[in-house]
Design goal:
By secondary structure, the chain is mainly alpha-helical. The N and C termini lie far apart (about 65 Å). The protein is built from 21 helices and no strands. It has four domains: about 100 residues, Alpha-catenin/vinculin-like (Four Helix Bundle (Hemerythrin (Met), subunit A), Up-down Bundle); about 220 residues, Alpha-catenin/vinculin-like (Four Helix Bundle (Hemerythrin (Met), subunit A), Up-down Bundle), CATH 1.20.120; about 90 residues, no CATH class; about 160 residues, Up-down Bundle (Four Helix Bundle (Hemerythrin (Met), subunit A)), CATH 1.20.120.
Length: about 725
């Protein structure tokens, strides 16, 4: 909104519509700042150490918002007596200064609030650690029950804080690391319960103590990693050295090779040779693995040899081209670049095939969980020899799965997936020995119900990780085959290729900066209309009414389309926008059906309601036709985007008129029962999730908070014998 004001072009003639739009933008900025500052002041009152800094920043922000509102109060320009009134037209520098002050003060508030959030997470972690120390030392069940109840509540609080933080992280790598740490804490919380109970029941059992110590150690490591991510630091100031995968090495190598087309002198041949050596060293993880097939091993060795030869040829032509830039030499260089890159692509494809085929075979082989079942049976029987035999088999299985994770990491394709592979490897490494110690404890105490329950919990964690590996393998294959873009949290988007026959012929693109600037005004109008629609829907007492639900769904989708015009939000490409426009139009058609149903219940204004419903159907059909029409080329695609946004705006304008009319008619029909309620002063959560009204809500990741809360509630049933 501020950018729109700053970029506003002065024109000699200003229409009433332009003046009203400018005034609405200024008022919207001021209202938004007011809500923002109210939250900032509330935070300041709760955190005395930062109260002064926060209060100053809030005052500055409020002052800047009010200045912008005053300078955009242009409704009185038509009156001659207001000639002395200073506005955006007479003092544009005033708006620029106010905008700078606003952005500066808002940034200060955000930074201070962020410091408070980090402090809250660290404080919560410290509480959890202190309670863990107490849990580790308890010697009676009664004391354990009391402390674990407190521990459970503290873990729920920590889960909420870190879940919010994970959602706020912009760095996908950090987000993946946070998710991995929180997954460990989720599983280990239940493990800690059963392992501690087993240790209390059998205090002299060494395997039970080893089992419990392993859980505590892993939880402390996970808690420490969360704090490292939150504070963006490493212990003792050491730098994080992430292992390099074959994929990332090949990607960087190819970029350097292809860069020779632009500049023959930007790197040395030694640099390029070293990069290839590192990649080929990593391929030894495949060729040296006992689980790589003979065929894959031979192909990888052959391609490694070919890569060295192609690089030698490239370096030879490259050196000649540096001395003499002839047409023939440059053509030879281009051929050498293409052959080198093709060889690296073949190598990449081969290691991917080797890793994913091994993973598919292992996951299929271990789906029956025969070893885990055997450990449970022999443990209950107290058969120590059989347990020892099956623990050896589990150790072999663990080594296979760890090797599988290492190879998958090389071909994962993205940093978040690499981190997920590393997390899976760690999980198998740690959980394997914990299952063994739990099984040994059960074999020594075969009649112990708690020892049996403990083994079940660790086996479930193993089975869960195997299940996660199947999903991970599918995602790695999706990335390799270029299907990554189909996976969206955005539930109202249809899957490409499933709903539209024209999709294969279309290339998804993004709007460039110039196109975003052209469409900014239209997008802003759409944004203001979504606010109007939201205000109208909030007035309905019956929020379950079909008309309200369709209206809210359409408003959410329109808001996501507005974000697209700014280069933000979940709609990343023009194709995403067209998909969303189709769903928006479908939702509008459903709303029209609900209006027809309402017309059967009312007597007053029935013709006008039916007329508006027909108008809505017509507009939605036009939008669907536009969204489905093919557009080839940059110019045609932008024209189609512009048309979709324009027609969406027209539908939203009609919706703004329909909602109050429907509410009025319903109020009359219900003879004073009332369908209105006062609008809330402000929304606490303005995050938009554009979901189809018929689509189930997205699951919120709070690392098993519900199950943990239930368990804390039921702690009174813990055995106390």
């Amino acid at each position: 909104q501020i950018t729109t004001l700053i970029n506003h072009k002065d024109k000699p003639k200003r229409s009433d519509k332009t003046l009203q739009a400018i005034q609405r933008v200024g008022q919207a900025v001021n209202l938004a700042v007011g809500r923002f500052v109210t939250v900032g002041e509330a935070i300041a009152n709760e955190n005395h150490e930062l109260k002064e800094e926060m209060s100053v920043a809030c005052i500055e922000a409020r002052r800047a918002g009010e200045t912008i509102a005053q300078l955009t109060d242009v409704a009185s320009l038509d009156h001659p007596e207001s000639d002395s009134h200073i506005t955006i037209f007479t003092d544009k520098t005033g708006v620029v200064k106010a905008a700078r002050l606003l952005l500066s003060s808002v940034t200060k508030v955000l930074v201070l609030a962020d410091r408070i959030v980090i402090k809250q997470i660290i404080t919560s972690r410290n509480k959890v650690l202190a309670t863990m120390d107490q849990l580790e030392k308890v010697s009676s069940f009664q004391e354990f029950v009391q402390i674990f109840s407190q521990f459970g509540n503290e873990m729920v609080e920590f889960a909420h804080l870190t879940g919010d933080r994970q959602n706020d992280l912009k760095d996908e790598k950090k987000k993946a690391r946070m998710a991995a740490s929180r997954a460990v804490l989720e599983k280990c919380t239940m493990m800690l319960l059963t392992a501690s109970k087993t240790c209390l029941r059998h205090p002299d059992c060494e395997s039970a103590r080893i089992n419990k110590d392993g859980v505590f150690h892993r939880m402390r490591l996970a808690l420490e990693q969360v704090i490292e991510i939150v504070t963006d630091s490493r212990p003792n100031g050491e730098n994080e050295m992430a292992p390099i995968s074959i994929y990332s090495g090949i990607r960087e190598f190819k970029n350097k090779v292809e860069g020779l087309r632009e500049n023959l002198y930007f790197l040395s041949k030694e640099n390029l040779s070293t990069m290839l050596e590192v990649i080929l060293e990593h391929t030894e993880d495949f060729t040296d693995s006992a689980y790589t097939s003979h065929e894959h091993r031979e192909h990888i060795l052959e391609l490694s040899k070919q890569a060295k030869m192609e690089l030698e040829q490239l370096v030879s032509v490259w050196m000649q081209a540096q001395n003499q830039k002839t047409k023939d030499l440059m053509e030879d260089l281009e051929v050498a670049i293409l052959k080198t890159c093709q060889c690296m692509n073949d190598l990449k494809r081969e290691v991917h095939s080797a890793a994913t085929s091994l993973a598919a075979d292992l996951l299929k082989y271990h789906t029956d969980h025969m070893v885990l079942k055997a450990l449970k049976i022999t443990g209950v029987e107290g058969n120590l020899e059989a347990v020892a035999e099956y623990t050896c088999k589990l150790s072999e299985q663990k080594e296979q799965l760890v090797e599988m994770c290492r190879l998958l990491r090389h071909v994962s394709g993205t940093e978040p997936l690499e981190i997920t592979c590393i997390h899976a490897e760690d999980t198998f490494q740690v959980t394997g020995p914990q299952i063994i110690s739990a099984a040994e404890t059960l074999a020594l105490h075969p009649s112990s119900k708690i020892a049996k329950e403990n083994l079940e919990v660790f086996c479930e964690a193993w089975e869960s990780q195997l299940s996660d590996m199947s999903l991970l393998l599918r995602e790695i294959n999706d990335v390799f085959e270029g299907r990554r873009g189909e996976k969206r949290v955005y539930l109202s988007l249809p899957r490409p290729g499933k709903h539209n026959a024209n999709l294969k012929a279309l290339k998804p693109v993004k709007l460039d900066t110039e196109e975003q600037a052209k469409i900014a005004k239209l997008g802003l109008e759409l944004h203001l209309l979504t606010s109007d629609v939201d205000s109208e829907t909030e007035k309905w007492e019956d929020q379950e009414n079909e008309i309200v639900q369709h209206g809210q769904g359409m408003s959410s989708m329109a808001y996501s389309m507005y974000l697209f015009t700014r280069g933000e939000g979940l709609l990343k490409t023009t194709q995403d926008l067209f998909h969303q426009a189709e769903i928006f139009a479908t939702e509008g058609t459903k709303l029209a059906s609900a209006l027809h149903a309402l017309s059967d219940q009312v007597h007053d204004d029935k013709p006008s309601l039916l007329l508006e419903a027909e108008k809505l159907i017509s507009m939605c059909k036009q939008l669907q036709i536009t969204a489905k029409a093919s557009a080839q080329g940059k110019s045609a695609t932008f024209t189609k985007v512009d048309a979709c946004i324009l027609k969406t705006r027209n539908v939203m304008t009609l919706l703004c008129q329909l909602l109050p009319l429907c509410c009025k008619l319903l109020r009359k029909t219900k003879a004073g029962n009332g369908c209105l309620k006062p609008a809330p002063p402000w929304k606490e959560d303005r995050i938009r999730t554009a979901t189809n009204a018929r689509t189930p809500e997205r699951r919120v990741d709070t690392f098993g908070i519900k199950s943990l809360e239930n368990h804390v509630t039921n702690m009174t049933f813990l055995e106390s014998k």
